[in-house]
Amino acid sequence: MKFDLRLPIGLLFSFYGLLLVIFGACSDPKNYDRSLHINVNLWWGIVLLVFGLGMLVLALRGRARKP
Amino acid sequence: MHIELGVLDYLILLTYFVFVIGIGWVLKRQMKGSTDFFLSGRSIPAWVTGLAFISANLGAQEVIGMAASGAQYGIMTSHFYWVGAIPAMVFLAVFMMPFYYGSKARSVPEYLKMRFDEKTRGLNAISFAVMTVFSSGISMYALARLLEILLNWNFHFSIVVSAVVVLVYIFLGGLTSAIYNEVLQFFMIVFGFAPLVFLALKDIGGWSALKEKLIPVAAGQGYAAGTWTQSWVHMNNVKDNPMGVEWMGMVMGLGFVLSFGYWCTDFLVVQRAMAANSMSAARRTPLIAAIPKMLFPALVILPGMIAIAMDYSSGMQFLPMKDGAPDYNMTIPVLLAKYLPTGLLGIGFTALMASFMSGMAGNVTAFNTVWTYDIYQSYIAPNKSDNHYLWMGRWATVFGILISIGCAYLAANFNNIMDMLQLVFGFVNAPLFATFLLGMFWKRATGHGAFFGLLGGMIGAAVFHGLAIPGSATPGIKGGWIAPHFHFNNSMGQNFYMAIVAWTTCFLLTIAISLATKSNKTEEELKGLVYSLTPKIKSGDEPWFKQPAILGIVILAATVALNIIFW
Question: Does B436 contact A at CB distance below 8 Å?
Fold first, then answer.
């Protein structure tokens, strides 16, 4: 394999997740009138963050296995 | 129709572009020879090629178009997945991949050359190359139009930006770059659209409320109550459903001819599997792809169904109107704008843009390979160094994209030319699967048989098109230009039957001509290319979930179950 694709996927989605979580936590609840009063940025941000970190963990474990 | 993107959304979009180009940049150092550039050095693990396989197909026409069909035809659109995709993907994996991958052919046309002869390869390579640059141009045009409508971006600016991004990352990293970015785009689509579907479905009151609200949609257009939520019940007669297709045309036309023709012979998707790191991984590629493909209707068709239900219950206020009918193509953008707040909107919008670009990239990588190996190396400059072909591949990417830009402008100015071209592509593609089926499973099929069978199938398609006409259309581009003889409810039904005619013509002609001509290849030469002359693959020591046949059966069983649940 060229380089582990899980690395950029992990980085990108961790970054997106973090961005959405921070923005979701700080933003005005009025923003979420359109999303049925659910703070989707916060909640979906957490999902993205977990996914992204999971990918990073897998990538790092994969790297550790190969010398 | 307008979408307001915030600073955060632009930041998300920009980050995506940085990553996409960054991946190409990192891969650049690993592009040492033409095999690295065109085939990723046959080194990619199955989960990556599998997701890229499905993502290459999940272009924007797919996302926007399937949502539009979901609104226009309801759940019957799922036939494009559960009938028109999964069975063919399983067939490709279990039966055809051993020959594609095992023959070490570098492209689908090259397989035809090894199995049949030069002229069959030439016919396929040239028509395929032309088709890919035009498809890529159409993607580019559609993206630029959408950005113009939604964000008031300048049309020329959008064309240049999308062309430059795609050009840079393929020029640098070749097929690997395209594949990696397709996987990235796969996750963007899933993560961008899942919350959208969740919110829309919650808003309308869940699945049972949606079913309820789709009854007036069906009734309003003169169909039985469950037409939008039952996929098979209303298929006995063409007049019973908005698609204007009955089950025979659906199963044979879409499910057999068109679906197998696309999934099993189109180099755009097959190339992804050819890049896999082993025979086993190559065979698992379409199977891994089949799993998300099976579930995509929830992501792309369901939003269309929700949107049309809302449109009717709001007195046609939900979707914008175009020429007196709802503009179904605006389904996804309307939902994005309605439900996603700034932040998540950036993710959803980036996913949409990414899908346009990966559609272009998929076509461009297929084009540069076929151009370099099957046209340039075969007819223009044979026996050059490998470095020379790598150089050619890079520059083929550049002029492929330049021609695509030309096509995008052509599409912008002369709509008819594009319709005409797509029609011709239809003729060219329809018979292809017959040639491959006979080539792989009948050792007696000859080069002359394949070539003239293929040509005959294309002509058959054109003649049928000239004799058939949909609805109340006037003879011309829609059909009937010879004499309108067969009447169809609409062009979809007509297309399905055109495919059946083309396939049958090609199948019978190839057999007849093959029997009348001498074999042009010895049995030794056909080893690894034809079923009966190839040693069977033993897959004894792999766990069951890695064995293509078992995996294929599980996937088919799940597909049958889905058809029954939504019968």
Answer: no
Yes or no, beta carbons of A20 and B343 under 8 Å apart: yes
Six token digits for residue B73: 């035809």
Q: Is the pLDDT of residue A66 over 90?
A: no
**A28, A44, B124, B340 from A14: Cα distances, Å:** 23, 12, 44, 20
Do B199 and B54 belong together in one domain? yes
Give the pair of three-digit tokens for residue B319. 């979707």
Both structure tokens of A36: 């049925």
Distance from CA of B398 to the nearest CA of A (A): 24
Distance from CA of A57 to the nearest CA of B (A): 17
Residue linked to tokens 């028509």: B127
Q: Measure Cα distances from B374 to B122, B378, B396, B426 in Å.
A: 7, 6, 13, 22
Q: What is the mean pLDDT of chain B?
A: 90
The parent domain of residue B451 ranges over: 428-529
ipTM of model: 0.95
Number of domains in chain B: 2
Every domain of chain A and the residues it spans? 6-65
What pLDDT, on the 0 to 100 scale, is given for residue B501?
A: 94
Evaluate if pTM is beyond 0.80: yes
Cβ pair B340:A34 closer than 8 A: yes
Query: Which residues on adjacent β-strands are paired with residue B487?
Result: B469
Chain A CA closest to residue B36: A2
Instruction: Please write the tens of the pLDDT for every residue from B128-152.
Output: 999 899 888 988 998 999 899 899 9
Contact (Cβ atoms closer than 8 angstroms) between residue B79 and residue B249: no
Which of A5, A34, A35 lies nearest to residue B48, judging by beta carbons? A5
pLDDT over threshold 80, residue B341: yes
d(C-alpha B112, C-alpha B517), whole Å: 18
How far is Cα B69 from Cα B308, in angstroms, rounded to an integer? 10
Measure the CA angle with vertex B354, ends B350 and B355; round to 5°. Answer: 120
Q: What is the pLDDT of residue B539?
A: 63
Asked if B129 and B100 sit in the same domain, the reply is yes
Q: Is the pLDDT of residue A1 over 50?
A: no
Task: Name residue, tokens 């065109």.
Answer: B38
In chain A, the N- to C-terminal Cα span, in Å, equals: 14
Look at residue B535 and tell me if it is in a domain: no
Q: Does B202 touch chain A (CB under 8 A)?
A: yes
Contact B184 A40 (CB under 8 A): no
Which of A42-51, B414-423, B430-439 is predicted least confidently?
B414-423
Distance of residue B403 Cα from the nearest chain A Cα, in angstroms: 30
**b/e burial code for range B306-317 (CB count within 10 A of at least 16 → b):** bbbbbbbbeeee
Interchain CB contact of B183 with A (< 8 Å): yes
| Separation CA B540–CA B65 (nearest Å) | 42
Q: Are residues B246 and B356 in the same domain?
A: yes
In this predicted structure, what is the pLDDT of residue B540?
64
- Burial of residue B516, with CB atoms counted within 10 A of its CB: 0-12 exposed, 13-18 middle, 19 or more buried: exposed
Of residues A2, A5, A40, nearest to B344 (C-beta):
A40
Residues B458 and B323 both lie in one domain: no
| Cα Dmax for chain A | 52
Same domain, B514 and B554: no
